[in-house]
């Protein structure tokens, strides 16, 4: 009797093992098919990681040649770039600290100068425009006696911006810190993989706790991929898709973003600077003529009012430019004109609220 139980137990174990291996094999075949991967992919960690593996894993490199691995932030702009071609016949350069543009910024600012630090994603960085066409560059030109430092990096979430601010931004001893806010960045806050692996915060007892840090280098991450279960990836993708549809992740995204923005405000003020957050209209918002605010705009501006943060509503400046006959890009990254209009709007707010002379 006992021997029969052992044999039945062993048979069930072998059956479960064979079934698991079959599922794993089928999942590996399915997820290695690029067309099928595109169909099942969504905005989740396994999908982003598998797409990166398919495109760049074999070479063990980052998504863009202008980037370098950064253990604290995942990726960063390479230092000392010179006139790297970007779309539209533009050129990209960086200084010795990996900041957009050739200009060097010392820890100490020049006497009588107001120093403005700008945080953001690819819109702030200036994807597809030249060094002298970003809204940070225009803002410095429009405000004599100021020095504007562009810490925007493409693909960043607010979590990476906060880490950048903590580790390097405060060293510049800014007078004003501007956050170029896009609602699309909020979803990046709940990811630990996007353009590449990245750190992320979670709420632990109502406080921010950092996870996935330090970020592993690309070559090592790619080498470890063969040991990852693709069946587990597939289950994770299905589970996360359900959580997105149920609204659970959307609520987590909102709460986590608010906590990150709170910490950003505290960090800025502790450095002796004043926060000024700008809502950057994008993804069809630029030419939206409805006078009422969108749900995303209400979320942002109600938070800024509650938190006592100077907020900047730039959409009216774009609409006014359109009334004057300008043709603006409604989708995709901003062009030179959109950057210039944003700078004009930000300048008007900063001067009107007395944040700059």
Description:
This protein has one domain: Rossmann fold, CATH 3.40.50. The relative contact order is 0.13. With 357 residues, the protein is an alpha/beta fold. The chain contains 13 helices and eleven strands. The N and C termini lie far apart (91 Å).
CATH architecture: 3-Layer(aba) Sandwich
Shape: elongated
Helical stretch count?
13
DSSP strand count = 11
Secondary structure category: alpha/beta
In which range does the helix fraction lie? 40-55%
CATH class: Alpha Beta
> What is the domain tally?
1
Q: Mind telling me the CATH superfamily name?
A: SGNH hydrolase
- Report the sheet with the most strands, covering strand number, pairing sense and barrel closure: 5 strands, parallel
Q: What is the strand arrangement across the widest sheet?
A: 6-5-7-10-11
Named CATH topology: Rossmann fold
The radius of gyration computed from the alpha-carbon positions, rounded to a whole number of angstroms, is 23 Å
- Unreliable segments of 5+ consecutive residues: none
Share of residues in strands:
5-15%
Kindly, what is the distance between the CA atoms of the first and last residues, rounded to a whole number of angstroms?
91 Å
Output the helix-strand order: HHHEEEEEHHEHEHEEHHHEHEHH
């Amino acid at each position: 009797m006992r021997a029969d139980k052992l044999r039945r137990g062993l048979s069930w174990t072998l059956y479960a093992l064979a079934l698991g291996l079959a599922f794993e094999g089928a999942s590996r075949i399915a997820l290695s098919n690029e067309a099928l991967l595109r169909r099942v992919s969504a905005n989740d960690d396994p999908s982003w990681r598998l797409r990166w593996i398919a495109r760049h894993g074999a070479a063990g490199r980052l998504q863009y040649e202008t980037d370098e691995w950064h253990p604290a932030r995942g990726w960063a702009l390479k230092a000392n770039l010179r006139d790297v071609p970007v779309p539209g016949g533009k050129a990209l350069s960086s200084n010795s600290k990996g900041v957009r543009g050739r200009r060097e910024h010392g820890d100490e600012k020049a006497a009588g100068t107001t120093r403005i630090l700008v945080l953001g994603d690819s819109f702030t960085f200036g994807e597809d425009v030249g060094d002298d066409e970003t809204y940070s560059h225009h803002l410095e030109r429009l405000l004599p006696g100021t020095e504007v430092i562009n810490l925007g990096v493409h693909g960043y979430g607010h979590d990476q911006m906060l880490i950048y601010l903590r580790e390097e931004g405060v060293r510049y001893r800014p007078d004003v810190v501007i956050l170029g806010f896009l609602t699309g960045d909020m979803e990046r806050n709940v990811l630990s993989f996007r353009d590449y692996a990245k750190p992320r915060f979670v709420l632990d007892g109502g406080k921010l706790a950092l996870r996935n840090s330090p970020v592993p280098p690309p070559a090592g991450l790619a080498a470890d991929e063969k040991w990852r279960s693709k069946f587990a990836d597939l289950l994770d993708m299905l589970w996360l898709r359900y959580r997105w549809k149920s609204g659970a992740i959307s609520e987590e995204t909102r709460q986590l973003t608010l906590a990150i923005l709170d910490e950003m405000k505290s960090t800025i003020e502790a450095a002796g600077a004043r926060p000024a957050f700008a809502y950057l209209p994008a993804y069809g918002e630029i030419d939206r003529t409805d006078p009422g605010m969108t749900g995303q705009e209400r979320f942002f501006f109600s938070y800024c009012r509650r938190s006592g943060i100077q907020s900047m509503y730039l959409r009216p400046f774009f609409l006014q430019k359109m009334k004057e006959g300008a043709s603006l890009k409604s989708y995709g990254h901003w062009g030179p004109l959109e950057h210039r209009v944003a700078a004009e709007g930000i300048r008007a707010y900063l001067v009107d609220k007395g944040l700059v002379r």
